[in-house]
């Protein structure tokens, strides 16, 4: 069902996805979709959670064990996010829709305090804590928050060439932590 929802979203945009269409594409009954997800919002949340988990696994692979130079490693991870988001059909569809004025799935990626946003912050916070063991946890938390929020912001509203953006964000994090 999630694969069907993903395909339909990539083809026509989330605004055009219905539970009936997902059921038809997945070749299951509509009550099965309702039973699994509750409603369209539940389906959207489950879809974005799954895609985000897969996406963050790639970020983790970039960070761990990572490059010896902390700034270069963080820059590589941010660059991975900026480039990979453009290559991932669902994330590209969500970000493109947001740029065009439709933000129906965007809140799941950006503003809601739940496993999606928290997962990115936890990943970055834990990595920063290992790289900067001398820092107090509050500084590490602030840096992780800034990195995740600014990276997501640059996905939605690109600020220029991805490599330069990644370098700037990595530099900002270093300045917060030193």
UniProtKB/TrEMBL annotation:
Pfam families assigned: TetR_C_35 (PF18556), TetR_N (PF00440)
Keywords: DNA-binding, Transcription, Transcription regulation
Keyword Transcription tagged: yes
DNA-binding residues: 18-37
Domain HTH tetR-type: 1-55
Gene3D superfamilies: Tetracycline Repressor, domain 2
Keyword DNA-binding tagged: yes
InterPro entries linked to this entry: AlkX_C, Homeodomain-like_sf, HTH-type_TetR-like_transc_reg, HTH_TetR
Highest taxon, organism lineage: Bacteria
Name this polypeptide is given: TetR family transcriptional regulator
């Amino acid at each position: 069902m999630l694969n069907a929802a993903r395909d339909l979203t990539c083809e026509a945009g989330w605004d055009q996805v219905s539970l009936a269409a997902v059921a038809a594409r997945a070749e299951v009954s509509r009550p099965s979709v309702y039973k699994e997800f509750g409603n369209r919002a539940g389906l959207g949340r489950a879809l974005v959670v799954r895609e985000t988990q897969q996406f963050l696994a790639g970020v983790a692979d970039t960070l761990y064990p990572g490059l010896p130079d902390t700034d270069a490693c963080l820059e590589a991870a941010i660059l991975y996010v900026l480039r990979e988001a453009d290559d991932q059909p669902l994330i590209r569809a969500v970000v493109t829709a947001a740029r065009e004025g439709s933000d129906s799935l965007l809140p799941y990626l950006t503003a809601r305090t739940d496993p999606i946003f928290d997962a990115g912050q936890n990943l970055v916070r834990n990595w920063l804590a290992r790289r900067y063991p001398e820092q107090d946890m509050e500084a590490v938390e602030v840096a992780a928050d800034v990195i995740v929020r600014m990276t997501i912001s640059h996905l939605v509203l690109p600020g220029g060439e991805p490599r330069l953006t990644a370098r700037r964000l990595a530099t900002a994090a270093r300045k917060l932590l030193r």
